[in-house]
Amino acid sequence: MANADFQTQVQKCPAVGVPGDKASLNPIVATDRNYIAGDGAVKVGNFVWEDPTNPVPPNYHGSGIMAAKSSGTGLPLGVVLRNLSYVNADIFDSGTLAVREQSNLTVVKRGDLYAVATTAATKGQKVFARLADGAVVTGAAEATITGAIETPWKVTEGGAAGELITISNWEA
């Protein structure tokens, strides 16, 4: 019996990118604090907020590490960078973009990144962070999008909803 979690197809060419990957050779600017995933729903390529109510593990105390979560209010800290140190807990686990709870995060405040928007995206649109889960939503500057907040990020390469796009805030 075949396990559905195992790879079932091979592409001829590698993907252009993965959500949370750097999209250019421009530098990135990460937060000045270290963060760990404060809840099990933190996904690379999505926005996160500081979580002062979530306790960090005892071995992290005194090291300046704080927890970040995938939901919040106000402006988010930034976007979770895809870091190849995120490992599956078990060889039989399927691949995922979710970061395991209490795993280290690199949160990007400034840069050019790949993301997947829940809405169709066109070049020049503003990027909004959905407050419930940190998902990327696009819209016109100063638009009111229910349940989302406008960020300093802009779409630099668009695509259909659910497709890979690029976002940047270097010119913001």
Write up what this structure looks like:
The chain is mainly β. It has strands at 29-30, 34-37, 47-50, 65-69, 78-80, 104-105, 107-110, 112-116, 126-130, 136-139, 148-157, 164-168. The chain has one domain. The protein has no helices and twelve strands. A seven-stranded mixed β-sheet has the order 1-7-5-3-4-2-6, with no helix packed on it. A five-stranded antiparallel β-sheet has the order 8-12-11-9-10, with no helix packed on it. A hairpin with a 5-residue loop joins strand 9 (126-130) and strand 10. The radius of gyration is 16 Å and the shape is globular.
Q: Can you tag this structure with a few keywords?
A:
12 strands, mainly beta, five-stranded antiparallel β-sheet, seven-stranded mixed β-sheet, 172 residues
| Helical segment count | 0
- Give the strand order of the largest sheet, numbering strands 1, 2, ... along the chain: 1-7-5-3-4-2-6
How do the helices and strands follow one another from N- to C-terminus?
EEEEEEEEEEEE
Unreliably modeled segments? none
Radius of gyration: 16 Å
Shape: globular
